[in-house]
Every structure is written in structure tokens, then in C-alpha cells.
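pinging the channel bc i need a second pair of eyes. not urgent but kinda urgent?? the chain im working w is below, pasted from the shared doc
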Amino acid sequence: MKRNFLFACYQTPRGKLLRDLECQYLQKSITVSCQQTVLQIGGLGWEHEFVDCLLYKNYTILDAKHLGCDDARKIQAKAYRLPLQSDSVDMIIVPHLLEFDAFRFQTMREIERVLKPEGIFLVLNFNPWCLWIRCQYLWDRHLADSWKGHFIGRPRILDWLKLLNFEVVQSSDFMLEKVTTRNGKYIAIGNPIASTAYAIKAIKRRYNLIPLTPVADAKPRLVMANSMHRTAAPSKQHTKQYD
């Protein structure tokens, strides 16, 4: 199973701290109504720590291995072939799945298809330049071999989102050394390259083209300069002559 690398990282001391930070971030980021539909692609098993599935009746977890919290509604399917109608989901959360998905760009297309216009898309990925992730990758080679090392950098995700007409509204970094918040947003202290993971929040935009109706060709007409406003003829002024 490819995502065993992720779950093995979460069992380490630094991984547990990363899990707590991501849990707090997800809890603050789910701002949609409990009546709206939220789709999480890729089960974690500890969703109850950042969302109340009994309150969010429409919270759905889609996973190929049927992973996820037992209280949530679950769908067993592939991420690159979502069995959902177009424009039917209000928010989509993808926690550390694209890194393990061989059809990651097709998955992004499916996300754009099922997400409603002005819907929220939230993705979490490892920072490919993090030394701890690289060391964990080399240390756990029997799990890493199945991963093939598909690290995805932030610039590539931003390019994909721009191509799919998403507007990025927030980009956050998870630094295990020091993390602070400002106005409900996580602000990384230090160089973002040293962060362990990052999160991107975007909104799906749909731009409708306004059709231009052709103007009917009119026959050219000649209009005299004084044809519209005729001025009165000047009156003759009679002058009296005095002897």
C-alpha cells in the first residue's frame, strides 16, 4: 500500500507533531455549513479530531481501501475516477494523496469537475525540500520503494490550479520548530523551504463568456451639415437717413 509511508511518518515523534498541526489547520479551514457537502479524498482514520461527522451529515470520505473515520459516510473508489456528478460538492479536502497518486493530474481534473463554482479546494502535501522527509524516505526504503518518491513542490500545484481556473486564497507552511497564527491563518516563522509540509486553499472560479451579437450593417447615409437645425434667414435692417 503506497500510503503506508504517510502513516509510518505519523508514528514518529515529529510526525505526531505534524499531525497535530494539520489537525488544527483543517479544523479552522472547514468553514462551510454543516448542510453542505464536503468530500475528503484519501482516508486518514482520525477525521474525528478535526471534524464532527455527526454534525456534518454530508461529510464523505472517498478512499480506494475504504479507510477513514467510521462515523463518516464513505465511498470506495479511485480518486482519478470520481463516481460523483459534476458541480455537486461544496468543499474538497485532499490530505497527502496526490504524492501517492500515479494519475495525479487526472485526479485534479476530476476535482475541478465535481466541485461547485466558488467551491473550496484544500490540499496538503509534504515539502520536497524538507530534510526530515528525505531522511525518512531513505530510512524506510521498503515503504519508500512503492512510493517512487513523487514529491510535488508548491510551484507545480500552483501551476495546476491556475490551469484549472482556481484562485489561490491562502498558502500555509507547517514548520515543526515554530508555528504561529494570525487572524486564523498559520504563519510560518523562518524560511518556507525548511517547512515540513504545506497547504494550499483555493476557490474554483468559473468565467462565463458574454456573447457579442453582430451589429447589422446599415446603409451609409449622407447628412447635410445644416439639415437638422435650420437657422432663420437674417432680417433686413432698415436704417433711417437724416438730412
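so The longest helix spans residues 13-29. and The chain has one domain: 4-204. — does that match what u expected or am i reading it wrong
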